[in-house]
């Protein structure tokens, strides 16, 4: 072999590949820094996602454990992966336009993950596939499950109390037993236990099993066990308090008992799971194949630069859209004293009810009486959506979890006919809480309908609202919309629904005109 050929094959490609990968990862982090900062902020503020701080150190340690196996591989750029990176970056842009944090954060992490096969190649990425996928645990995801898991917890707790001979009166997530009143609130849902358990359970399965079946089974157990354990935790807390005359398992004891119980469950899960462990065989030492150093340098850095350009396009497009929209003035909206078909604000009264709107740009409220009854209207108008201000978000609540005046037994949806076309609305029944110590003539029983308004369209679902909102921004039609809440209390649910249906049929057009004028006044 000639001296020139020998020189070409001395350098390891890793010496060029790793700096190129680090540069691409830094570029992604810089381009999507707002998304990254939002993620870290959620980790810091929410106890549910405090475990996310451990994800990156654990990922780096998992990769380090594979260093001997990686040394035997030769990194080779895979430019074709950039097509996937462009698709993910485009998805990030669409999610960012409508402020869907979880989607932007998943896309950001996916770009970091895809950078590895783009620069180092698919063979290298497959060797560290689990560590790369483990990075997705850094996304603070799962809070949408809170209402569902609260309902499951309440269902089981009430069922178990009844089977234990304790009489229970339930209303929504609140129930009363002879020794006191209890509520299943967000902290009782068990979401934080599920998130932490699934992360550590997945890590345990990867480190202790080689069989994909065993890994899958253990991960499923780690996902389901804390849900069921939380049900028993809630039941036992209520029973301990009931049997002790509310001296135990209340206040600080309540919280401490929950975490101690969760810790014992996870410990037992690991002890049982360790009985079927399959430890790794030791990695054999070795070295990657040497390649043309100059050619490798050009390939790695060229791929990294091209990938950086690709992932920069969507943030650039988002910036251009925001600049085209300009800095809009705060909207002003006021409901008129009179609407169509005899509906007017003539001093009619309804029980005082105000949904929990999360930081809207403007609010308008009025109560109208008409031929079919009395209807209250609340409009929350949103312009310039951000993390703190969104049109479709779980932060908008009809009734706060700890509301002292109202309870929310049930929610649903229904289709109504408007001039021959079907329109779907979200429905809810809201009850005034019982007050002890005095006579009550009649408990308020509100029928509530909710609608979103986006770019002249009336919508019911969060997903379709976000999709139409993103489409409106892409068409240069602005970043705004409204949440309209209508409510009535006519004595029976049927009469209240009839009043709401009559109001919607007569006044959806005038409300649309009002919102169109509000959007036009920028």
The helix/strand series, from N terminus to C terminus, equals HHHHHHHHHHEEEHHHHEEEEEEHEH
Number of β-strand runs:
10
Cα-based radius of gyration, to the nearest Å: 29 Å
Task: Please give the domain count.
Answer: 3
Uncertain runs are 1-10, 284-291, 436-440
Helix content class: 40-55%
Judging from the principal axes of the Cα atoms, what is the shape? flat
Question: What does it look like?
Answer:
The chain has helices at residues 3-8, 14-31, 33-45, 55-65, 67-71, 81-97, 101-120, 122-127, 129-134, 146-163, 191-208, 212-243, 252-273, 293-325, 462-474, 493-520; strands spanning 169-171, 174-177, 180-183, 362-370, 373-383, 406-418, 421-432, 445-454, 457-459, 480-488. Strands 4, 5, 6, 7, 8, 9 and 10 form a seven-stranded antiparallel β-sheet that branches. A three-stranded antiparallel β-sheet has the order 1-2-3, with no helix packed on it. The protein contains 16 helices and ten strands. The protein is flat. The chain is α+β, with helices and mostly antiparallel strands and 522 residues long. Helix 2 (14-31) packs antiparallel against helix 7 and helix 10 (146-163) packs across helix 12. The chain has three domains: 3-143 and 292-324, no CATH class; 145-170 and 183-276, no CATH class; 362-520, no CATH class. The longest helix is centred in the middle third of the chain and has 33 residues, at 293-325. The N and C termini lie far apart (74 Å).
């Amino acid at each position: 072999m000639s001296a020139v050929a020998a020189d070409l094959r001395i350098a390891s490609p890793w010496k060029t590949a790793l700096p190129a990968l680090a540069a691409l990862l830094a570029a992604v982090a810089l381009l999507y820094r707002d998304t990254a900062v939002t993620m870290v902020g959620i980790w810091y503020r929410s106890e549910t996602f405090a475990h996310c701080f451990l994800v990156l150190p654990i990922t780096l340690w998992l990769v380090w454990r594979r260093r001997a196996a990686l040394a035997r591989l030769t990194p080779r750029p895979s430019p074709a992966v950039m097509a996937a990176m462009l698709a993910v970056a485009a998805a990030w842009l669409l999610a960012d336009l409508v402020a869907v944090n979880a989607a932007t954060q998943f896309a950001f992490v996916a770009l970091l993950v895809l950078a590895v096969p783009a620069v180092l190649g698919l063979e290298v990425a497959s060797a560290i596939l689990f560590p790369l996928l483990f990075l997705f645990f850094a996304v603070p995801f799962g809070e949408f499950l809170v209402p569902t898991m609260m309902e499951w917890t309440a269902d089981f707790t009430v069922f178990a109390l009844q089977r234990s001979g304790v009489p229970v009166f339930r209303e929504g997530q609140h129930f009363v037993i002879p020794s006191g009143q209890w509520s299943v609130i967000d902290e009782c849902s068990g979401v934080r236990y599920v998130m932490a358990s699934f992360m550590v359970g997945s890590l345990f399965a990867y480190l202790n099993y080689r069989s994909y079946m065993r890994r899958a089974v253990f991960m499923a157990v780690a996902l389901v066990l804390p849900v069921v354990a939380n049900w028993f935790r809630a039941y036992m807390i209520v029973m301990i308090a009931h049997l002790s005359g509310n001296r135990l398992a209340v206040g600080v004891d309540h919280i401490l008992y929950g975490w101690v119980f969760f810790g014992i469950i996870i410990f037992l899960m690991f002890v049982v799971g360790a009985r079927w462990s399959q430890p790794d065989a030791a990695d054999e030492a070795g070295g990657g194949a040497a390649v043309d150093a100059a050619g490798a340098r050009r390939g790695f850095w060229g791929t990294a630069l091209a990938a950086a350009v690709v992932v920069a396009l969507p943030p650039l497009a988002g910036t251009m859209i925001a600049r085209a929209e300009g800095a809009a003035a705060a909207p002003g909206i006021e409901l008129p004293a009179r609407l169509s078909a005899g509906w007017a604000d003539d001093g009619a009264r309804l029980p005082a009810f105000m949904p929990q709107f999360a930081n809207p740009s403007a609010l308008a409220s009025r109560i109208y009486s008409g031929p079919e009854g009395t209807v209250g209207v609340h409009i929350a108008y949103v312009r310039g959506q951000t993390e703190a201000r969104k049109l479709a978000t779980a932060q908008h609540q009809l009734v706060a979890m700890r509301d002292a005046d109202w309870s929310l037994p049930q929610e649903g949806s229904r289709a109504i006919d408007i001039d021959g076309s079907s329109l779907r609305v979200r429905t809810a029944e809201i009850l005034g809480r019982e007050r002890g110590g005095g006579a009550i003539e009649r408990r308020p029983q509100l029928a509530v309908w909710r609608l979103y308004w986006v770019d002249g369209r009336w919508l019911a679902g969060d997903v379709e609202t976000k999709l139409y909102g993103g489409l409106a921004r892409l068409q240069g039609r602005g970043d705004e919309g409204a949440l309209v809440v209508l409510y009535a209390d006519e004595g029976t649910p049927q009469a209240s629904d009839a009043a709401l249906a009559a109001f919607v049929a007569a006044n959806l057009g005038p409300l649309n005109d009002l919102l169109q004028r509000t959007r036009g006044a920028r």
